[in-house]
Amino acid sequence: MLRKLYNWTMSLAQTKQAPVALGAVSFTESSFFPIPPDILLIPMVVAKPKSWLYYATLCTIMSVAGAFLGYYIGALLFQTVGQPILDFYGAEHSFERFKQWYDKWGGWGILLAAVTPFPYKVLTIFSGSVGFDLISFTIVSIIGRGLRFFTVSALLYKFGPPIREFIEKRLGLMFFLFCFLLIGGFIAIKYII
User: Fold this and answer.
1) DSSP string of 90-151?
2) Does residue 33 fall inside a structural domain?
3) Per the structure, how many domains does the chain have?
4) Residue 24 lies in a domain
5) Buried (b) or exposed (e) across 3-41, using 16+ Cβ within 10 A?
6) If residue 174 lies in a helix (H) or strand (E), which one and from where to where?
7) Residue 1's CB: how many other CB atoms inside 10 A?
8) 153 near 52, Cβ under 8 Å?
9) Highest mean pLDDT pick, 17-21, 35-39, 53-57
10) Residue 142 lies in a domain
């Protein structure tokens, strides 16, 4: 089954609709959607390595645009939309810890979340709810998301064939690592922040 899913994703990565799907996932992941865009970005760059710069740029732009949606959910719709989203991610009881964390780390914390598998949408919503400076938020989001997506894409472009071969030979391990990182990000919400 894992092999069929991988083959389907690789075939999707080569379609004309792939960039639209990548943009949509990048946008929604920064504000509410649980699955990171890497699930599409990686096979798309592996399938079309010469498009790595385009895909990384698309991912970054749409992710930052989605971060603004998350920010405004926190700023204007926190009680009706933001709080249920934070509840879904298990961050409903972390508000005071988030405030202390922001006081200590500020933009550095947002940058860290933008680069790592930490669910970025939690910090975009929280940033809006506490009125974090929008200019700083924008700068940190562009740097963090750009660093993440351009690094992944550039590495896949440079080392694509060996990486593709490695992934294809070890699909089970790669799936496990992806799930581990994804779940680890959610766990970080409860214990780190």
Assistant:
1) T-TT-HHHHHHHHHHHTHHHHHHHHHSSS-HHHHHHHHHHHT--HHHHHHHHHHHHHHHHHH
2) no
3) 1
4) no
5) eeebeebbeebeeeebbeebbbbbbbbbbbbeebbbebb
6) helix 171-191
7) 5
8) yes
9) 53-57
10) yes
Tell me the DSSP string of 35-86: S-THHHHHHHHHH-GGGHHHHHHHHHHHHHHHHHHHHHHHHHSIIIIIHHHH
In sequence order, which residues have a C-beta less than 8 Å from that of residue 79 and are 6 or more positions away? none
Question: How far are the Cα atoms of 42, 78, 90 from residue 81, in angstroms, in the given order?
Answer: 31, 6, 15
Q: Is residue 67 part of a domain?
A: yes
Residue 2 in this model has a pLDDT that exceeds 50: no
**Amino acid 83: pLDDT:** 84
pLDDT, average across residues 140-145: 92
Write the CA distances from 76 to 82, 93, 119, 129, 138, integer angstroms. 9, 20, 20, 8, 18
What length is written for the chain?
193
Task: Report the range of poorest mean pLDDT among 9-13, 100-104, 129-133.
Answer: 9-13
Which range of residues forms the domain containing residue 96? 43-191
- Model confidence band, residue 141 (pLDDT cutoffs 50, 70, 90): very high
| Type of residue found at 185 | G
Helix H or strand E segment including 157:
helix 134-169
Amino acid identity of residue 89, one-letter, is Y
